[in-house]
């Protein structure tokens, strides 16, 4: 039986690979979405997944809180960048 932590690890690995491939594709072809357009959004999601992964592990609760704080900061940075003035 596969553990929930292993599933989260797989999703994190897939997300990192997706971001790397999207950035590489854009860099090589000029097509697709540039990293600056999705990077902070992707980082926010990764930090949330990291918080979940840490919550499933026997770690100090402060690491979970730090991951959630990082997710919030990345989300705020993404909103600020996208906000129309």
Question: In words, what does this structure look like?
Answer:
- By secondary structure, the chain is mostly helical.
- Helix 1 (4-29) runs antiparallel to helix 2 and helix 2 packs antiparallel against helix 3 (61-82).
- The protein has helices spanning 4-29, 35-55, 61-82.
- The longest helix is centred in the N-terminal third of the chain and has 26 residues, at 4-29.
- The protein has one domain (4-82).
- It is 81% helix and 0% strand.
Give the ordered list of helices and strands: HHH
What is the strand content?
under 5%
Q: Which stretches are low in confidence, meaning pLDDT under 50 for 5 or more residues running?
A: none
The total count of helices amounts to 3
**Which secondary-structure class do the elements indicate?**
mainly alpha
State Rg: 15 Å
Please, what is the average pLDDT?
95
Measured as a percent range, the helix fraction is over 70%
Envelope shape: flat
Query: How many strands?
Result: 0
Please indicate the count of domains: 1
Q: How is the biggest beta sheet arranged?
A: none
Terminus-to-terminus distance: 51 Å
